[in-house]
Amino acid sequence: MARGRTAKRQAKAKPRPGKPKVRVKGPARRHAADVEAAHADLPPWTSAEIEEAFRRFKQANPEPMGELRHINPFTLLVAVVLSAQATDAGVNKATPALFAAADTPQKMVKLGETRVREMIKTIGLFRTKAKNVIALSRKLIDEHGGEVPQSREALEELPGVGRKTANVVLNIAFGEPTIAVDTHIFRVGNRTGMAPGKTPLEVEQKLEHVVPAEYKHHAHHWLILHGRYTCVARKPLCEKCIINDLCKWPGKIILQKTS
User: Fold this and answer.
1) Which of 137, 159, 193, 201 would be a feasible disulfide site paired with 105, CB 3.0-4.6 Å?
2) Residue 186 falls inside a structural domain
């Protein structure tokens, strides 16, 4: 008798033939899709698809601009250094008073670390950043005549300046077609399958390779803005995405074409 009941329970536990698998939904589904994208398991984009994506970006926003407020190359450099692990909006709240007091390396050094620290205390890691701002200002005075250098190597030798910061300054201040891979571009490159990579440098190098030359100058801003306002981390706005039909992300909401 007990054997019969056990057999019945086992039979009940077995999935019925032809029964569809349960699909994961919501955040778990998005996470699974991002993991798949991170392993470069998505179909590669064709040259025509990448060309079309950037054509649309340009059509929607012909002259994209960075959102960090600045006055000159020096204040741009300082703003980007301050933006590490912070939002542009947060930096923009602190820098108007700072830049009104010190818009050159000489004035910044004269202002001093204590005063700089006080003026940027609403920004994360403000103590370290204040120290770096004063140190890089001194280095600019001592080694570059008070001017922001126009080479990545020289920029990366400044305190608090890494490859991403250098690329932002080269792009915005000097018009170089560099692509600074921040968290937004890293996500977009991987999630869409346009430029998958395990590190920011890998994503940058792939974007350098695939982005058509005519779009490289503004590619940095188009991709950042797309990641910041559309292809957001937690719940991407696929319904508003202008490259939805080109995107290879398995977690996307597929839009229905209207006749």
Assistant:
1) 137
2) yes
Averaged pLDDT score across all residues of the chain: 88
Q: Which amino acid is at 38?
A: A
Angle at which helices 47-60 and 216-229 cross, to 10°:
80
pLDDT of residue 10: 45
Are 57 and 135 members of one domain? no
Instruction: Name the band, by pLDDT with cuts 50, 70 and 90, for residue 22.
Output: very low
Q: How far apart are CA 4 and CA 221, in angstroms?
A: 68
The CATH number that applies at residue 230 is 1.10.1670.10
Provide the pLDDT confidence category of residue 255 given band limits of 50, 70 and 90. Answer: confident
Q: Write out the residue range of the structural domain in which residue 114 sits.
A: 73-174
Asked about 164 being catalytic, the answer comes back as yes
Does 9 fall in a domain? Answer: no
41 included as an active-site residue: no
Measured N-to-C along each axis, helices 163-174 and 216-229 cross at an angle, to the nearest 10 degrees, of 120
Catalytic residue among 8, 34, 139, 182: 182
Catalytic residue among 21, 58, 131, 164: 164
236 conformational bin, left if phi > 0, alpha if psi -120 to 50, beta if neither: beta
